[in-house]
Amino acid sequence: MRDLSQHLELLSLNTATVRKQASLDRIIEAAVARGIGLIDPWRDQVHAIGLDKVARHIRDTGVRLSGYCRGGFYTGANAKELAAALDDNRRAIDEAKALDSPCLVLVVGSLPGALSGKPQSIDITLARSQVRDGIAASLDHARSVGMPLAIEPLHPMQAADRACVNTLEQAPDLCDDLDPGRTGALGVALDAYHVWWDPKLAAQIQRAGVGRLLAYHICDWLVPTRDLLNDRGMPGDGVIELKKLRSLVEAAGYQGAVEIEIFSEAWWSRPLEDVLDVCISRYKSIA
User: Taking CA atoms, which of 105, 226, 254, 257 is between 20 and 30 Å from 7?
Assistant: First the structure.
C-alpha cells in the first residue's frame, strides 16, 4: 500500500469541500499554494467563472484534474426531458475535455422530479432502464472525444432523488453491459461515503479492477449523522475503515489520486485555508 505521507501529489481536492468559502479561482490558488496539485471541480463552479477562463487558470497554475463533477441525471418524465438530459451530458463531456479531465463523474439520476420534491414517477425499474439507455447514448460522443465516463454509485438513501445505481455491483454490471471489451471508455467512481457499508464491497472492487476504477473519493461517515446530504465527516472523524478500503482499491490495481470530497455545513463554516490544512493532515495520516 502506498505511503501517502510521502506523496502529497496524489491528494486531490474535490472543490465541493470548500464551495461555500470561495470561488473556484481562489480555491485553486489556495490549493496550489499548499502543494495540492489535483482538483475535481464542479460544473456550477466552472460556469460561475466561465469555462475558458477556468481552463486558462488551470494551465497557468499547473494544477491538474482528477475528475470533473458531474454528468448524469439521465431520467425524465417524457421524451423532451430525456433529450435535454442527453444534450446536457454532451456539454458536460465537452467541458471535461476542455479542462483535460481524466474522466467525467456520473451521478446517474433516479425518479424524475424527485430532486425538487415532486416525483413524476415511482417506477425505479424504469428509471434504471433510462439510466442504462442514457449512458449508452452518451458513450458514442464520449468515445469520440476520448473522455471516460465514471459511474458513481450513491448510498441507497439517495436512490429516489439522485441515483438509482446504489451498489458497486450495479455499476460494473452497467460497464460490462455497455463496454464489454473494457476499452476504458466506461468505469466507476468509488466514493467511500456511499459504498463503505456494502457487504460485497471487497469482491466488487476486485471485480472492477484497474481498468474500471477511474476515481476514488474519501470522507467519513459520522455517528450520529445529522443531515444525510450535508454532514459528511473529515477522514478520521467517523466509522469508515479508510486505510482498509484503500488497501482493497490498491490491491485491485488502482494507483490514481485520493480525492477528498466533503459535503458539510460544519466544514463549510470554517475558513478555506483551515479546511485545506486539515485535508492535508488527514490525507497524510488517515487516508
Answer: 105
Q: What gap in Å lies between CA 161 and CA 139, rounded to an integer?
A: 23
| Distance in angstroms (rounded) separating the CA atoms of residues 240 and 87 | 37
| 218: three-class secondary structure by DSSP | strand
Domains of the chain: 4-285 (3.20.20.150)
Contacts of 246 (CB under 8 A, 6+ apart): 1, 216, 218, 258, 287
Q: What is the pLDDT of residue 234?
A: 98
CA distance 224 to 237: 11
| Closest listed residue to residue 201, CA positions, set 184, 211, 213, 186 | 213
Instruction: Assign residue 250 a region (left: φ > 0; alpha: ψ between -120 and 50; beta: otherwise).
Output: alpha
Q: Are 230 and 263 in contact (CB under 8 A)?
A: yes
Cell numbers linked to 92: 458536460
Q: pLDDT band for 182, please (50, 70, 90 cuts).
A: very high
Beta bridge mates, 208: none
* Backbone φ and ψ of 183, nearest 5°: -80, -10
Whether the CB-CB separation of 162 and 107 falls below 8 Å is answered with yes
Helix (H) or strand (E) holding 279: helix 272-285
Residue type, 72: G
256, three cell numbers: 490514481
Residue 145's pLDDT is what?
A: 98
